[in-house]
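Researcher: I've been going back and forth with a colleague about how Endoplasmic reticulum transmembrane protein might be arranged in three dimensions. Neither of us has a model we trust, so I'd like an independent prediction. The organism is Saponaria officinalis, in case that matters for your notes. Sequence below.
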Amino acid sequence: MIHLLFTLIIAEMVVILLLLFRTPLRKVVIMGMDRMKRGRGPVIVTTVAGTLFVLLLSSISNILNFTQREDESGSVNPTDQILFVRSLLDASLMGFILFLGLMMDRLHYYIRELRLLRKTMEATKKQNRSFDDAKNGNDGRKAVEEEIAALKSKIKTLESQCAAKTDEVKAEQSKAEALKKQSEGLLLEYDRVLEDNQNLRSQLEELNSDGKKNM
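Model: Here is an independent structure prediction for Endoplasmic reticulum transmembrane protein. You can compare it with whatever you and your colleague have in mind.
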């Protein structure tokens, strides 16, 4: 019994040391304790702890009985002394086992809570980063929208200038067409005048020839 109790104490001390320091075995121990707290694990642990607590109470009652006997008789035989020491040792070991078990449970609980807290903080940091990115994105979007508005105003100005230039070109084209029509009319008038001139020359030549014949 004593060897088993010492073995349990050493095992619990090793587990506590592994939980206290960051080592590759720490994750294995945490995973093992997580599995122990699932399914039938809590029932088994509670049963073992309850059994140890009952044995602890029994050892304490034996110690109290030995103390009463010693007070009543004034002297204790060697056998009672050995049983008293054995009960005291058993009670001490079982109490230490229960205490270390409670320490293991609390360490495991606080480590899990610390991990959840770190995950929550990381998630909060990511949200803050995404919020900052979104804010920066909104600022960049505003700048782009301002540039787009400026470009739109420039486009409108260029469109108005282009419309004015188009109107000027149309006016010049209409003037050119008018000048073309006017030149065509002048050419027609020139041809008519030239034809009349030729007719007049021919008539003068006929008159001159008739005059010469009469002479």
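Researcher: What would you highlight for our discussion?
Model: I'd start with this: The two ends are 180 Å apart (CA to CA). After that, consider the following. The first helix runs from residue 2 to 20.
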